[in-house]
Amino acid sequence: MRSPLAAARIRRALATRRRRVVAGAVAVVLVAAAVAWAARPQRPGFRTESALVTVRSGPAGDQPVDLDTTLYLPRDASARHRVPAVLLAHGFGGTKESVRADAEDLAGHGYAVLTWTARGFGRSGGEIHLDSPDYEVRDAQRLIDRLAARPDIRLDTAGDPRVGVVGGSYGGGLALLLAAQDSRVDAVVPMITWNDLSRSFLPESTGKEPTEGVFKKGWAGLFFGGGGNVGSGPAGVSGNTAGQPEGAPASAGAPSPQPGAGPGTSSGRVPGGPADPSCGRFAADVCAAYLRIATTGRADAQAVELLRRSSPAGVLDRIKAPTLLVQGEADTLFPLTEADANARGIAAAGTPVRVAWFTGGHDGGAGPTSDSDRVKFLTAQWLDHYVKGEGSAPGGSFTFSRIAGFDALDRGLVATGYHTADYPGVAGQGRTEVTLTGPARPIANPPNGNPAAISSVPFAGAIGSLLNGVAGDIPGQHARFESEPLAEPVDVVGAPTVRIRAASPTGAAVLFVKLYDVDPKGAATLPDGLVAPVRLTGLPATIDAAQPVTVTLPAIVRRIESGHRLRVVVSTSDQAYATPAEPAVHTVALGGGPLTLPTVDAQPIPTTATVWRWALVGLLAAIAVGLAVVVLLARRRHRRQDSSVHPEYAGVPLAVRQLRKEYADGFVAVSNVDFEVHPGQVVGLLGPNGAGKTTTLRVLMGLTQPTAGEIYVFGHRLVPGSPVLSRIGALVEGPGFLPHLSGLENLKAYWRATGRPWAEAHFDQALEIAGLGDSVHRKTRKYSHGMRQRLAIAQAMLGLPELLVLDEPTDGLDPPQIAEMRRVLQRYATDGRAVLVSSHLLAEVEQTCTHAVVVTKGRIVASGPVEDIVGESPSVLFEVSDPDAARSVLDRLDGVRVLPGGDGGLVVDTNGTARSEVVAELVRAGIGVDRVVPRRRLEDAFLALVGENSRGSGDR
């Protein structure tokens, strides 16, 4: 008993401790608030001015068109404080609303930002001319004129504002064309855009002109067809959903409804006039060119000339504005080679150029946050120096990024950025050569291109890699050439090349060449769904006479791990492209020489995000270590306190004594459960839903603490973390596996976590039990429910534990697998081992278990050998020569009832009628009676014990 003085000291100490805890918590909150305030972006305010303005464009500059505009102005912009400006162009199918978030960011950064809806879209008038220098580009020039006339915009000279142009995809093409046409542009940041629009839609990977190119019908159909008839265009052709970095300048997001837009504008009609249903809001010459190409699958010189009119390729030498080219690696519309061609053409004129590749694109979205943040930083840095006149020159270094894995904190993808001093182009700085092997093969071109391989799908180019050959490459329509496993990893940065040969009785062939990364288990990945289309002409009839041609594959950024193989596939069809309608059989072979992989010697880019991430990881690690120490100390204390062995239960695998589990709200899940499991027994734990079965198993496995009672395993009192738990194998509350690992890898990872020697695992026996065959090498995310269940049972049996606890082990298994599981459990309960099974399949328990424990409403109502619980039978099993005829006879007897079941015989409730009388009636009817045995099932006994309508109190 404590003295009053001691009690007072204790109270003072507790009060002091409480004050310290409170003070510490307040300090933590204040520090967190200070950090959050310091990290919060401090943007100056801005105001907006929206207007429908009329500009004059066209070849002669005299055709009026209304453009829907919004100007974002920093609040401090005035005649005394002029600010630099940015023209922010949206993507195809978008409107000025698509870039609102980016405009606000730039305005907060001190720029006046002018956004507008391009002609032919949204509320703006006019027709779509595909960034024509006479129309869309001249429209933008008139907008620069309007900026120059404002008193709050900084000027270089009269009529020449300080202005940068930023845009993604359609807006990026406009930025380049505008810089070539108007010398007042001070800097441009074009993103995920094109060099030669004709090559983009009619690519050919051996160097032929677009008139010989292979029509990219999937993208063209969305770009031309959809954009012409819907005011908002094909959702996401450019912008966030189409691969622009989210939140980066010129993200050109999917279109938003325009305030005040009426039905006419939302339908895509030119305001004030009807739309041609064939062409929508496209100009007639653009629409006609598309219709000709889409009909024939080939381009004529006139169509190519029209597309090149809207291409930067012919005017790059006129671009004097410093240019930051941002291009996406996951882009089957405008791949990396488009930015490469732009960079080389602009640099040749002596203009400062910088190239940045990121992991997104039209098919890959914005990429990871770390990647989009890098793009935003590069954009701001470029504009600040060349438009605002602040900061040092960014230089011309090359940056790119690669997916590095998953973020352990938010489970999102993480990209690692790299840089090198000089831009190497898509040819790279170095070369790695890989030998391919494979025989010449005949491949069929299907009539009308159907069925076609699936490699890339607009906005989801990498879907082909998910198909893993199931639909990606059609049997009979492709040939494979493969390398040996790589001895060392290779970091590919650029466009690989390969030489092939082809022959055809038709003299021509359209082929699609792809490069797959094949892991040691055979899973093949087509990086970003990228394909090299090839049109070969003048081919010989036999492969022996064929000459090799060099195919330049799409530029990629990918690490090929050691042990992986490289596979080149040559296919005759692809869903994304137009192919010859006539059926034919070509022959393809390797052309000699290796597969050449470009490499770049680059350094990782350190970022503040990386530093903070590691700091946070370090903090979390310290917390985890502290918690681990606390847990270890608690477990050690438990082990010291519970190291004794109860002599009565030393040889008993499981003894449950007076178990009770009551929750804080008064709910009683288990009120009084008391049973034992002995060596050699298979014990079934039975009960209706909510009877307390799962709660009992959770307590048994140390997953929850009992309110009262004890559990002994081989005489050791069971507590959480008790060493004796290592003698138990369990499957409770369903299996949990790492989805990115195979079944075998999951088993090995589980066993490593136990810390026990490998020799004790008995993997062979466990895999035999699982019965998964070669599927054990597949990733578990591809498993069916039954496969996961079988793998979980094998995991429970690893190490052949002396006590096996299984909760619904046959869930998800088919009848043959259930029968096999029955035999497995019966074999397992030998050599001193025991099994406890919770199941609702009473027939299986009856055939599998030696003993049963029946629980209802948290109490045991029966336990013992199964045959004792079944007891005497009130029913009889008749095995007869004609069951249908016998059923008719028995139905006529008073009081006699044929029960369900019987497995080929008849189970009959005689209801007091003598069995001899029943047999006599059957014989008089000419029915042979082969066998008469008493019959009672476990189900009958179970229902008698718990009642047909019995419900438990509910497991938790």
From TrEMBL:
Keywords associated with the record: ATP-binding, Hydrolase, Membrane, Nucleotide-binding, Transmembrane, Transmembrane helix, Transport
Ranges where the ABC transporter domain occurs: 654-882
Span list, region Disordered: 234-276
Domain of life: Bacteria
Pfam families per record: ABC_tran, Peptidase_S15, PepX_C
Keyword DNA repair: no
TM helices/strands, residue ranges: 611-634
GO MF entries: ATP binding; ATP hydrolysis activity; dipeptidyl-peptidase activity
Biased composition (Low complexity): 237-255
Keyword Transmembrane helix recorded: yes
Similarity comment: Belongs to the ABC transporter superfamily.
PANTHER family from the UniProt entry: ABC TRANSPORTER, ATP-BINDING PROTEIN
The protein's name in its UniProt record: ABC-2 type transport system ATP-binding protein
Organism encoding this protein: Micromonospora narathiwatensis
